[in-house]
Amino acid sequence: MMAVHVLPGVDPDGDTSAAYLVASGRSAAAFAVLAGVGLALAFGGPRAVNGRWWPGAAVALTVRAVLIGAVGLALGYPDSGVAVILAYYAVLFLLAVPLLRLRSAVLAGIAAAVALVVPVASHLLRADLEAPERANPTFATLLENPGELLLVLGLTGYYPALAWTAYLCAGLAVGRLPLRSPKVAAGLLGGGAALALAAPAMSWLLLGPLAGRGRILATTGADFDPAALDRGWFGATPPTTLWWLALDSPHSSTPLDLLHTTGTALALLGALLLLSRVASRLLIPLAAAGSMTLTLYTVHVVLLSSSLLPAEPTTSYAIQVAAALAVALLWRRWVGRGPLEAVIARASRQARRAMDTG
């Protein structure tokens, strides 16, 4: 994530940089899939949340969504150059409330259905909509035009929550599995890798031998750069022809993009679970950072809007990564939860307790 935000997207030769080739789109997808895993572990673990426990869980998750959304809207004010994801996350978490009641197999089925169907529906719906502004939403956006904000967060924005529900459902499904099992970890690695390879192969077939690329370019203007087809988009592709849905480029939110990035996220999770069985100490810094991702993300966005970081991208990136890992290690050792995580956990816990005892 930091690499995409800090390092150049294009190298001196004009080609897409290595950082973008590796991380663009995939890092955000991993973030969303892991959010689903985290929700499953926090609400029910291996079992779906049902019966008298569901209302408390629903209220707790709603409170969590509102607070994360508030942080996201606040981060819309600094001029960071980052498309802030947190307001979209808030909508995702609200969509997750009824999903807490579902079993792993059902969640996996919903994830697949969303990945295949929602991008097509979005493409058809957006044909009659104006292109959204690319500015980050703020509290002013919420007060001035809440309907437009909901449309951006759900359908037309950089991280459209309706399509991204595929990531969340995949994460929830995985979080209900016995993650300590090496068979499960190996299955995530193998299955995720297969999905990550199959989606680009299908995109290549559709765009190349089946002439989809030419059909797309026929709908663009003379000044359109064909390299943009592969470099990435802003949450959705133009709704001019259904052939756009054959792309698998970053942040296009097409079926093949969603399937590919879900696969890379699952493969990464499986690999880390297997690595934790043989070299768990190597993962301690990552685990510490993972325990306070909201705080680190917030600080990262604020720093990018300041003049405190070096102008040279590689140096800035190295400093931010090193500082994040060091601070997370020390904070986890001496304090525990990250500060924002602690506030949100306490508020959601109190809301849940009030519902359960009320």
Describe the protein in words.
This protein is mainly α and 358 residues long. It has one domain (22-281, 342-357). Helix content is 66%, strand content 0%. The chain is globular. The mean pLDDT is 94.
Quickly describe the structure.
By secondary structure, the protein is mainly alpha-helical. Helix content is 66%, strand content 0%.
Strand content: under 5%
Series of secondary-structure elements, N-terminal to C-terminal? HHHHHHHHHHHHHHHHH
Total beta strands: 0
Radius of gyration: 20 Å
Largest sheet: none
Shape: globular
Instruction: Please tell me the total number of domains.
Output: 1
Assembly type: single chain
Q: Whole-number average pLDDT?
A: 94
| Class inferred from helices and paired strands | mainly alpha
Number of helices: 17
Percentage of residues assigned to helices: 55-70%
- Please give the alpha-carbon distance between the first and last residues: 41 Å
Name the poorly predicted regions.
none
Which helices and strands appear, and what pairs or packs with what?
Blueprint: H1 2-6, H2 18-23, H3 26-42, H4 54-74, H5 86-96, H6 104-126, H7 139-144, H8 146-156, H9 161-175, H10 182-207, H11 212-217, H12 228-231, H13 255-278, H14 284-290, H15 293-304, H16 313-334, H17 339-357
Helix pairs in contact: 3-9, 3-13, 4-5, 4-17, 5-9, 6-9, 6-13, 10-13, 14-16
